[in-house]
Amino acid sequence: MKPTAVYLPPKHPTAATKFDVVIWLHGFYVKNHEFLFHNDPARLREQVRDSGKDVVLIAPFLGYEYAVGDTFAGNYNVSDLATASWGERYLEEVLGALARFLGLSSTSIPQLQIDKLIIACHSGGGNGMRNLVGNLGKYQGKLTACWGFDCLYGANARPDDATFWYQWLSGQSGRALEIVYGPSTLPQSVKLDLIGRGLATADGNQAQPQRPALKNLSVRVGHYDLFPAFGQMVRVNDLDPAYVDRFMIPQVADRPRLHHKPAPQHGEFLQGAISNVRTAFPFPKDIHYMIARGGFFSRLSKL
Length: 303
Hints:
The protein is of the alpha/beta class. The radius of gyration is 21 Å and the shape is globular. It contains 9 helices and 11 strands. Helix 6 crosses helix 8. The strands form 3 sheets. The protein has a 7-stranded mixed beta sheet with strand order 1-3-2-6-7-8-9. A two-stranded antiparallel ribbon has the order 4-5. Strands 10-11 form a two-stranded antiparallel ribbon.
């Protein structure tokens, strides 16, 4: 169904018939599935290898899209991932091929089984992840988490990415969503963070009173490994959410004293938070792929 790269880590026992799977959905600038494992700056194969975890990495090739001036050209397309049970049919085909490769089966019926299934994506692959989460067929119950790395570009989608994922998480039981974002996906990521924690409404107003937070959502800002904040050096992996909140939503003591006014009801709360984060964080130039590398490795290491 798709040209596909599959990586088995060195510690994977070749006789195993049940294993954890990560489906990786790439973004633009990937020329083919070989490029994804050998040349792509996300360095997926190396992150799986160095994490020391026994997961099988499955990466379909979704097309090659590239910049031409101020626009894009190419054949990148994830619309078919939105068709009913596409994920089941795709995984059946890959598992069957993998079984034959490992010498476990001489037929087209796979003997391999999935224990835990994770969907991970980078950049434009966020739209693919959004399309795929509800179309896994018999593997729907195997899905345990989705990881998105700088991927929430869908501000003009219907519904937008933040609202889609909030609604998806609200209807799930035990499945988690983890998002790490940079400057290009900051607006939708901040929106998802605020509504997911019950601090904002879907239309960008401050929630009053605060609503219950989603327990299965984590949204983090991607940044330098080490940077100064409030007079001390902070490691990004040790970043306390309170630091981000101090930038995102200035505390009462930080604000100038003004006469009491009713809370604005035209989305200013969300827009102010987005502006504050964009101003406060000096994102490095290569943050887009830094998030893919470091974020993926960090999540794999915690499996």
